[in-house]
């Protein structure tokens, strides 16, 4: 591709040969000396012109050739870029335009060259003419002409040189740009081809894996069928067959009836559940309505409160102005009264002084007249008048004082009155609010009660159907989650329903309903409290399986193993079982044993054995019951906490050492803790066997693990899935996958869990009876339960 735009250089050999030929005739030293002295002859000029022509011609030819090549290049480019989309078409168009421009330019340049050639020819003619005229012309004229021609020749040569360099420059730039573009396109194409081949490879790998999985499933079905057949044909004698047939005949009616009853009960419970759901929905609606009403009332209360506040402020303002007015009025009245009093006193004083003066005068007069006339009574009359006036003023003063006192009292009592009125209003409001709150609380408690009932019904349904219980534990945000937008929390919880988890995905909220959701604040103890009833039921003879599932770093190990100071389910479960065993020790004898295994890369390893490097196999139990066991898997008896701690430590250490040796990552390995409990009721001789297994991850593609799990998740088992999720945004996809997986698992029906009991006969042979909830009612013991006890010891040495 790159070679397309490489321009052919002028045939320099031809030029050099021609030059050598003429230099022979006119040696370069001589010619140069002539040129430097401006002494070129017409012959020299002719030679120069010819040389120039020879140099130009290849360039022109080259350009012509380039021009001819261009459509081919374009075609080539079109071919290369075919299928690279619009972008490439646009680029091709641009290149095409550029090429057209170049063509135009080349034509122009060619024309210029041709013009120049013509000029040169003319010059040649002129030179010839001059040479023919030379004999007729004088030396001076000739010299003049020669100078002119030489200078013209030099100018033309310079122009030619300039044009040539321009042409070279432009064409080389264009060529470089096109080369770059071509390289880029080639690079892109190579990348695409690599991508396609990677994808093809992946598709092929997936197809191979699918085929492999299909083959495995077919194998397992074939094996199961074969085992069934073997069981039927090898282990059962004619007598057994007859016995079985008879038992089936006898039992089938009762079994059908029991099945019918169970179905009826399930239907009834389903109906009840539907009813409860309906009630819950109604209550929810009512609650919503009440909440709306409450919010309305709250708004009204707030409105009233603001109005009250405003009224209070107004009242206070009015009260203040009234008080000011009152004080003003009182002070005015007081001043007036004082004025009046002063006036009265003044008049009294005046009067008394006048009166005294008068009286003195009068007395003087009287004294003077005493001797002559009888005593005069008019002075006494005047005094009586004044006294009457004073007596008339006194009630007015008293009324004024009384009014003043009343007003003063009113003013003093007014804030208290306002406060009282407001208090009453507030009391009334709070009574209203409280009654609304009480109604709400009542509705809420009813709603919770209904939820609880619904959960109970659901649990009962789960027990009857034998579904797997799915719990979710959300781990807290840790420093490993980093900072930034990826470390944002995306999970929220429902305050009223502990089985709801909301996940906010791109602004949208998705809700998942599970059996229980543990928020990050949940302690190990609280998680264990939820799991413990399941664990104790393995003492009653049920197969129990607890699985922790989740992406790497979501807290599976933390929940199952925990830390030394805060142990997880494994250690707590063993501790609980030990304490239960000691509680029941009066009537029961139990034997607890523990195995620990790890599956890594389809290799099952014993973590408690002396050689933890060797790989173990999973085999069909020889009893023909189609059950599996692991030959050579170490089982260690457990009697106290010391034993438990030793065993767990050993298992952990073996696992860690092996990981260091293999340089593996923990998330690719799957740990199993298998606990076997064998119990015997000392009074009746009834024995129970059960199996509990835990593991850290369920990859369904892992056949070894699936084999072991299919035992634990068998029809007569109780199973619990502990989904572990990380709360941050960067783990959203994995969290969604885990929750969707949990949702699907919740609907998986394992069948009614059955208790495994066996009656030990005095002769040493064993029989068993079903003690499942249904069997305790009407369901008779099944054929499966009549198998010898050794067959039920599934994992561990046969
Ligand atoms: N509930 C929790 N409280 C506090 N820390 C937790 C909790 N759950 C997990 N962690 C912490 O989160 C980190 C990852 O947890 P853990 O190792 O249990 O994840 P994992 O799912 O077992 O990972 P892997 O699959 O890679 O083994 C650990 O540091 C652990 O201490």
From TrEMBL:
Composition bias of kind Basic and acidic residues appears in 20-33
> Is the keyword Transcription assigned to this protein?
no
- Kinesin motor domain location, by residue? 467-798
Span list, region Disordered: 1-42, 752-798
Compositionally biased residues, Low complexity: 766-775
Subcellular location(s) per record = Cytoplasm, Cytoskeleton
What does the record list as coiled-coil region(s)? 146-216, 270-328
Give a yes or no for keyword Magnesium in this entry.
no
Q: Which UniProt keywords apply?
A: ATP-binding, Coiled coil, Cytoplasm, Cytoskeleton, Motor protein, Nucleotide-binding
Report residues binding ATP: 550-557
Annotated PROSITE patterns: KINESIN_MOTOR_2
A single Pfam family it belongs to is Kinesin
Q: Which family does it belong to?
A: Belongs to the TRAFAC class myosin-kinesin ATPase superfamily. Kinesin family.
Q: Which PANTHER family match?
A: KINESIN-LIKE PROTEIN KIFC3 (PTHR47972:SF5), KINESIN-LIKE PROTEIN KLP-3 (PTHR47972)
Query: Which named protein is this?
Result: Kinesin motor domain-containing protein
């Amino acid at each position: 591709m790159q070679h397309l735009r490489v321009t052919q250089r002028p045939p320099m050999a031809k030029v050099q040969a021609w030059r050598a030929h003429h230099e022979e005739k006119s040696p370069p030293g001589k010619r140069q000396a002539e040129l430097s002295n401006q002494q070129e002859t017409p012959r020299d000029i002719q030679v120069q012109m010819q040389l120039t022509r020879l140099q130009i011609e290849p360039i022109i030819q080259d350009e012509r050739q380039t021009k001819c090549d261009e459509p081919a290049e374009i075609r080539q480019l079109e071919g290369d870029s075919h299928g690279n989309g619009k972008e490439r078409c646009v680029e091709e168009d641009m290149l095409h335009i550029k090429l057209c421009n170049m063509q135009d330019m080349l034509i122009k340049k060619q024309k210029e060259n041709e013009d120049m050639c013509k000029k040169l020819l003319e010059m040649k003619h002129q030179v010839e003419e001059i040479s023919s005229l030379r004999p007729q012309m004088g030396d001076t004229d000739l010299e003049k002409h020669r100078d002119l021609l030489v200078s013209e020749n030099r100018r033309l040569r310079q122009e030619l040189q300039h044009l040539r360099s321009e042409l070279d420059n432009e064409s080389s730039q264009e060529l470089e740009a096109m080369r770059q573009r071509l390289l880029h396109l080639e690079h892109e194409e190579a990348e695409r081809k690599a991508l396609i081949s990677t994808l093809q490879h992946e598709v092929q790998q997936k197809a191979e894996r699918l085929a492999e999985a299909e083959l495995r499933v077919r194998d397992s079905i074939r094996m199961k069928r074969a085992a069934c057949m073997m069981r039927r044909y090898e282990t059962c004698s004619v007598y057994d067959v007859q016995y079985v047939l008879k038992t089936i005949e006898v039992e089938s009616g009762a079994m059908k009836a029991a099945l019918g009853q169970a179905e009826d009960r399930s239907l009834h419970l389903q109906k009840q559940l539907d009813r409860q759901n309906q009630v819950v929905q109604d209550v929810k609606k009512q609650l919503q309505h009440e909440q709306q009403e409450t919010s309305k009332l709250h708004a009204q209360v707030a409105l009233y409160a603001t109005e009250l506040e405003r009224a209070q402020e107004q009242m206070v303002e009015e009260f203040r102005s009234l008080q000011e007015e009152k004080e003003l009025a009182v002070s005015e009245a007081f001043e007036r009264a004082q004025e009046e009093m002063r006036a009265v006193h003044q008049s009294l004083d005046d009067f008394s002084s006048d009166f005294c003066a008068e009286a003195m005068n009068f007395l003087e007069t009287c004294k003077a007249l005493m001797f002559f006339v009888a005593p005069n009574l008019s002075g006494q009359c005047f005094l009586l008048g004044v006294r009457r006036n004073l007596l008339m003023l006194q009630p007015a003063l008293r009324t004024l004082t009384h009014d003043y006192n009343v007003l003063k009292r009113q003013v003093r009592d007014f804030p208290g009155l306002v406060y009282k009125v407001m208090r009453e209003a507030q009391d009334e409001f709070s009574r209203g609010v409280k009654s609304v709150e009480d109604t709400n609380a009542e509705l809420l408690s009813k709603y919770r009660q209904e939820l609880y009932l619904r959960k109970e019904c659901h649990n009962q349904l789960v027990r009857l159907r034998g579904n797997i219980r799915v719990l979710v534990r959300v781990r807290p945000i840790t420093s490993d989650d980093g900072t930034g937008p990826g470390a944002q929390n995306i999970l929220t919880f429902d305050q009223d329903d502990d089985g709801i988890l909301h996940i906010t995905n791109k602004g949208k909220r998705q809700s998942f309903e599970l059996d229980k959701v543990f928020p990050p604040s949940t302690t190990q103890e609280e998680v264990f409290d939820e799991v413990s009833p399941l664990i104790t039921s393995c003492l009653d003879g049920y197969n129990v399986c607890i699985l922790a599932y989740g992406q790497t770093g979501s807290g599976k190990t933390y929940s199952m193993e925990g830390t030394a100071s805060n142990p997880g389910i494994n250690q707590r479960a063993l501790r609980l079982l030990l304490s239960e065993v000691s509680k029941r020790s009066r009537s029961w004898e139990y034997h607890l044993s523990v195995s620990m295994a790890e599956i890594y890369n389809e290799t099952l390893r014993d973590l408690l054995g002396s050689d933890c490097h060797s790989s173990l196999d999973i085999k069909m139990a020889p009893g023909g019951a189609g059950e599996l066991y692991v030959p050579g898997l170490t089982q260690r008896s457990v009697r106290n906490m010391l034993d438990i701690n030793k065993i767990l430590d050993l298992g952990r250490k073996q696992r860690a050492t092996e990981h260091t040796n293999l340089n593996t990552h923990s998330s690719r390995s799957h740990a199993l803790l298998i606990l076997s409990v064998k119990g015997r009721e000392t009074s009746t001789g009834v024995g129970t066997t059960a199996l509990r297994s835990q593991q850290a991850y369920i990859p369904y593609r892992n056949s070894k693990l699936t084999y072991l799990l299919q035992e634990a998740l068998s029809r007569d088992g109780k199973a619990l899935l502990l989904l572990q999720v990380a709360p941050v945004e960067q783990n959203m996809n994995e969290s969604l996958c885990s929750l969707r997986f949990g949702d699907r698992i919740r609907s998986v029906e394992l069948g009614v869990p059955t208790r495994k009991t066996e009656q030990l006969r005095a002769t040493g042979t064993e029989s068993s009876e079903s003690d499942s909830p249904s069997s305790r009612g009407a369901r008779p013991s099944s054929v499966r339960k009549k198998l010898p006890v050794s067959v039920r010891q599934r994992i561990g040495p046969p």
